[in-house]
Each structure stands twice: as C-alpha cells, then as structure tokens.
C-alpha cells in the first residue's frame, strides 16, 4: 500500500505505550520512527554528566550556554547518540527519569529539541512520539493520536521494563515517578502536555500492539481514502 508522505504525531503521558506503538506503526507504514523523549533524556544525561543538576534536581543555567556543543543524532537502530557514543539505555534509568521532567520544562531546552525535531521531521513519512508533537512541534501533522491507559497498566509496564533492565524499584516508586512526571509535564508553562483538539484518542489499556496498529491503519485508510 502506498501511504502519503504524512507526519503522524503520537502524544500522551509517560508509559502509555507510545514508543512501542509508534515504532510498530512506523514499521507497518515503512516510515521513520522518531522518539522525541529520547532527546530530552539525552539533554538530561548530558547535564547530569556535566555536573549541572544538583541532588535536589536544580538545573544550573550554564546548561543553556553548553547546549550548542551537544551533538545528538539517531543511529541506524534509532538509538540516541552523543557524537559517536550511543547513550541508550543510559538515558532510561530511574535516575534520568526522575530528572528529565524539570530539564524538559526549561524553555531553552525545548527550543533546542524543537529545532532538532523540525530538521528531522521536515520530509514527512515519519511517526514522532512525545508530549507536544501534535500541539506545538507539528501542529499541522496530518494525523494525531493521543494515547491513554489506566495508571495501573502504565505502572506495571514501566515496572516490568525497569526490572528487565536489571533495576529493582518498588511498584510504589514507579507510580510516584509516573505521577510526578505527569504533573510536571502537564503543568509546565512551555508546551504542556495536552490533547490536541483534532487528535484521536487511543486507550490501549486492554489492547495489544497489533490491535493498536490495525486500528490506526484503518483510520489512515479512511482518512486518506485508501483501498485496503
Ligand atoms: O517519552 P519519555 O518518557 O521518554 O519522555 C521523557 C520526558 O521528556 C518526559 O517526562 C517529558 C519530556 N518530553 C517532553 O516534554 N516533550 C516531548 N515531546 C517528549 C518528552
């Protein structure tokens, strides 16, 4: 099937399964998948390694001056890299997860990441996931999906992910981190997480990834009048 050169924006709270879904959808469409959260996480790792985040999570304003020296790109496997160094999975630890929301709330960090996202997505044929893709980064995206899932399902998914990576958080810690990030992400001044008025809601609490992809392909076929 020949799909049009569109941008698909996938937004939603932490651990709603956006990235697994967006990756599977991109692969079904033959599009590129772009994980915008990985960029915020990479900026956070960089700031941490430069000693610019205090124990209490306060970010040193010197970060703004250093950002132009940070060269992030995605390798052939879609993993974020700083220069030659692949920083995935280092960007996915609980430590980085607990620092990323305050860093991503900084307007100069958002400008830095938005510029990168724009240059990466300008050709279309891309599925990009994040918090503000359909509202701020690509407000003209031809298809917007807003993902939700119950808190219980989200916490269990995140917990299993961390355990699979060898971390040992308690379920309570994971729930606390999800709630805190949801709060910061949706209450910050710069591009808060919210559902775009023209987004389709996908609640995947009780859906498999193949069902989510099938649902979306149906949506695309209907919207762009494509034959199955
Ligand atoms: O999707 P994720 O959990 O990897 O994202 C990490 C953090 O980055 C998340 O807590 C909020 C921030 N983020 C954002 O502010 N805007 C985006 N478009 C993507 C992520």
Can you put this structure into words, describing what you see?
This protein is an alpha/beta fold and 228 residues long. It has one domain: Rossmann fold (3-Layer(aba) Sandwich), CATH 3.40.50.300. Helix content is 47%, strand content 14%. The chain is built from 9 helices and 8 strands. The strands form 2 sheets. The protein has a 5-stranded parallel sheet with strand order 2-6-1-7-8, sandwiched between helices. The chain has a 3-stranded antiparallel sheet with strand order 3-4-5, covered by helices on one side. A hairpin with a 2-residue loop joins strand 4 and strand 5. Helix 1 (18-29) packs across helix 9, helix 2 crosses helix 5 and helix 7 (151-164) crosses helix 8 (171-187). It is globular. The termini are close together. The model has no long low-confidence stretch (mean pLDDT 94). The structure holds 2'-deoxycytidine-5'-monophosphate. 2'-deoxycytidine-5'-monophosphate binds next to helix 2, helix 4 and helix 8.
Q: Return the string of H and E elements.
A: EHEHHEEEHHEHEHHEH
Rounded to an integer, what's the Rg over CA atoms? 17 Å
What is the count of structural domains?
1
Low-confidence stretches: none
CATH class: Alpha Beta
CATH architecture: 3-Layer(aba) Sandwich
User: For the report, how would you describe the main beta sheet?
Assistant: 5 strands, parallel
Structure annotation, total helices = 9
Q: Please report which band the strand proportion falls in: under 5%, 5-15%, 15-25%, 25-35%, 35-45% or over 45%.
A: 5-15%
CATH fold description: Rossmann fold
Q: What best-fitting shape do the alpha-carbon axes yield?
A: globular
CATH superfamily: P-loop containing nucleotide triphosphate hydrolases
Which molecules are bound besides the chains? 2'-deoxycytidine-5'-monophosphate
What structural category arises from helix and sheet content? alpha/beta
- Ends: how far apart? 8 Å
Helix content: 40-55%
> Major sheet: order of its strands?
2-6-1-7-8
């Amino acid at each position: 099937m020949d799909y049009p050169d569109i941008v698909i924006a996938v937004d939603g709270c932490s651990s709603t399964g956006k990235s697994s879904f967006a990756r599977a959808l991109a692969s079904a469409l033959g599009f590129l998948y772009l994980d915008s959260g990985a960029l915020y996480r990479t900026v956070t790792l960089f700031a941490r390694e430069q000693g610019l985040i205090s124990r209490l999570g306060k970010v040193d304003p010197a970060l703004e001056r250093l950002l132009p020296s940070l060269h992030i790109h995605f390798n052939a496997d879609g993993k974020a890299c700083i220069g030659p160094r692949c920083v995935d999975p280092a960007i996915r630890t609980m430590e980085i997860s607990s620092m990323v929301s305050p860093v991503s709330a900084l307007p100069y960090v958002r400008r830095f990441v938005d510029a990168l996202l724009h240059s990466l997505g300008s050709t279309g044929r891309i599925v990009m996931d994040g918090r503000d893709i359909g509202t701020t980064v690509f407000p003209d995206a031809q298809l917007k999906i807003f993902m939700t899932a119950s808190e219980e399902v989200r916490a269990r998914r995140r917990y299993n992910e961390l355990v699979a990576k060898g971390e040992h958080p308690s379920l309570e810690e994971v729930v606390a981190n999800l709630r805190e990030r949801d709060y910061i992400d949706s209450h910050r001044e710069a591009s808060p997480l919210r559902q775009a008025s023209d987004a389709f809601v996908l609640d995947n609490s009780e859906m498999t990834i193949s069902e989510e992809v099938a649902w979306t392909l149906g949506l695309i076929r209907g919207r762009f009048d494509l034959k199955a």
